[in-house]
Design a protein that fits this description.
single chain, 139 residues, alpha+beta, four-stranded antiparallel sheet, 2 helices
């Protein structure tokens, strides 16, 4: 699963996801992509599940690009632990995704296959998404 090799600080504040995506809102590598329509935190496990769904449906044809990376640690305390005692230990990694962000891109496969593969991937993610293609393509 995806996680940073090293971090300057082990724990981070939760933060909020405001506004639309400043970067990564256009297709850069592939002909087809999966775009986020709502703001959400996506875990490394969800990214991996979506990637597996795409590659299995494509039957290893074409190429897949993952345009998001989980770089925010989420900490939690064990069940039934009293208040106080500081912040919990980092449990998993998430990526803060803003609306408009391209999360996955695929290329080298026909449009119907790409649409079906990215639809399967969208089912693994906790946010609303949209299938997008290059400007020159007919929809």
């Amino acid at each position: 699963m995806l996680s940073p090799k090293r971090m300057k600080h082990r724990k981070q504040h939760k933060g909020r996801i405001h506004g639309k995506a400043k970067s990564g809102a256009d297709l850069s590598f592939g002909a087809y992509g999966l775009k986020a329509m709502t703001a959400e935190r996506i875990t490394a496990r969800q990214i991996e599940a979506a990637r597996r769904a795409i590659t299995r449906h494509m039957r290893r044809a074409g190429k897949v690009w993952i345009r998001i990376f989980p770089d925010v640690p989420v900490s939690s305390k064990p069940a039934e632990v009293r208040m106080g005692g500081g912040k919990g230990t980092p449990e998993f990694w998430v990526c803060r995704v803003r609306p408009g962000r391209i999360m996955f891109e695929v290329d080298g496969i026909p449009k119907p296959l790409a649409k079906q593969a990215l639809t399967l991937a969208a089912a693994k993610l906790p946010l609303r998404t949209r299938f997008v293609s290059r400007v020159g393509e007919e929809d």
